[in-house]
Amino acid sequence: MTRVYLAGPDVFLPDAVAWMERKKAICAGFHLIGISPLDELPNQPPEWSSLPDWRRIALRNEAHIRGCVAIVANLTPFRGPSADVGTVYEIGFARGLGLKVFGYATVATAFLDRTLSSIGGGRQEADGSWWDADGLLVEQFGLFDNLMIEGGITESGGALVRDDQDRWNDLTVFERCVQAAAEALRGATPTKREGNVRSV
């Protein structure tokens, strides 16, 4: 079966392991193998054991991504108007590897509106442009998030699914995204990069 990496701030939930198992079960229903950032890495290099946790986690997650053909990322705004920064990094990493990128969010509000709300409003010029209190232009392309995130998803051949739901307790939007991924990946050759790791 085809392996997909499940990126997102879900790892910070109090029931993260059980939550990720629910996401994996949804993936299995669409004949995909969901790989969680919390999963152990087979054949982890023994020298990693001496590394601090944060480095070991980063290396493990990159190795997991290398072993997949796509990434399904939770882009629900996290502690600000935009997606979790670690998730955004993983999207870029996956895109650089040539993987398909799929994103979903349980919030449908546009990026511009979320940004203006987070900064307490802004100043709109006669040409329609918005500026923040520091005099910096606010991005406004009518997108869900920063243009590079949506650009990466679009150019990879992936999809973005969003809908207003219970932010951290709903999996229906995730399921719709996984369904889109399964349809796009149907017939994809399972990766031969499984277990590829980088020694340090």
Features:
200 residues; 14% strand; alpha/beta; two-stranded antiparallel ribbon; Rossmann fold
Describe this entry's structure for a reader.
The protein has 200 residues and is an alpha/beta fold. It has one domain: Rossmann fold (3-Layer(aba) Sandwich), CATH 3.40.50. Helix content is 36%, strand content 14%. The protein is built from 6 helices and 7 strands. The strands form 2 sheets. A 5-stranded parallel beta sheet has the order 2-1-3-4-7, sandwiched between helices. A two-stranded antiparallel ribbon has the order 5-6. Helix 1 links the parallel strand 1 and strand 2. Helix 3 packs parallel to helix 5. The radius of gyration is 18 Å and the shape is globular.
Spell out the helices and strands N to C: EHEHEHEHEEHEH
Overall 3D shape: globular
What is the residue-averaged pLDDT? Answer: 93
- CATH fold topology: Rossmann fold
CATH structural architecture: 3-Layer(aba) Sandwich
Kindly provide the name of the CATH class. Alpha Beta
Number of strands: 7
Provide the helix percentage: 25-40%
- The rounded Rg comes to 18 Å
Structurally, the number of domains stands at 1
State the separation between the terminal residues, measured CA to CA. Answer: 30 Å
- Largest β sheet strand count, sense and barrel closure: 5 strands, parallel
Strand and helix layout:
Blueprint: E1 2-7, H1 16-29, E2 32-35, H2 53-66, E3 70-74, H3 85-96, E4 100-105, H4 111-118, E5 123-124, E6 130-131, H5 147-156, E7 160-162, H6 172-185
Parallel strand pairs: 1-2, 1-3, 3-4, 4-7
Antiparallel strand pairs: 5-6
Helix pairs in contact: 3-5
